[in-house]
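Worked problem 6 (solution included).
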Amino acid sequence: MSEVIRISPREAARLMEHEGYLYVDVRSVDEFRLGHPSGAYNAPLQHPEDDQVVDNPDFMSVVTGCFPEDTPLVVGCATGVRSLHAARRMLHAGYLNVKELRPGYDGIRDPFGRVGESGWLAEGLPTEMQAPGDHRYETLLLRSEQGRST
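Solution. The predicted structure is:
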């Protein structure tokens, strides 16, 4: 398994615009609804449950059911923590061309709240609040379940 390649927001945008990469946002459904990179697909790595966060047992089945292993993907979250974990899982599962958005959508902050590296949003890159239906988690989950039953 190769090591995860971590990239900047501007590099991610360039890959998406010029090299056909798709953006997979692994934040929760609620986080995704508050804003995300334009064109992103939502496949949450985790879900909020009661007062905690739990792993999404359907994460990899959604990814494998919706994106072939040779699909060029940029994986992002809020600050680069979840997306790094998700990208590692994807590479381990056989994905060939995965890049991870190092500072995420919101950026990396130090313990005092100072921005260490700007994320997608602060870089002023294209964002949206509404996603096409086929980019939403509910639709991706349904699509992956239909693929397993055929």
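Discussion: Residues 137-149 form the longest helix (13 residues).
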